[in-house]
Design goal:
The protein is an all-alpha fold. It contains 4 helices and no strands.
Length: 103
């Protein structure tokens, strides 16, 4: 469990430092949260919501199967979503970081 806590803190710092794509960071946090049953689910609500809203955006190797024109369009949508969600995600990251440091 301590490893997952450290992974979560690392991803949070990467998001806050703009070292990882916001959508990728949210997806990683949502994956890691399932490994920590001791953390209240409500602290992850923002991450779950943003993950759900951005789930249709292709990331990683799946992008290789997409048409270039479609990728340009969907990447623009993803950029707009990132702008819309950045402040909420940064706030949620800071809250989660504080929580994790206390447990």
């Amino acid at each position: 469990m301590e490893d997952t806590k450290l992974e979560l803190l690392s991803v949070i710092e990467d998001i806050l430092g703009n070292k990882v794509n916001l959508i990728d960071g949210v997806r990683i946090i949502n994956h890691l949260k399932n490994k920590r049953e001791d953390i209240e689910d409500n602290i992850f609500n923002t991450f779950v919501y943003v993950g759900s809203e951005t789930d249709s955006y292709p990331r990683g190797s799946v992008r290789d199967t997409w048409n270039d024109e479609s990728l340009l369009r969907i990447d623009k949508e993803a950029e707009d979503s990132i702008k819309d969600f950045r402040s909420d995600i940064e706030t949620a990251c800071k809250m989660l970081r504080s929580y994790l440091r206390e447990i």
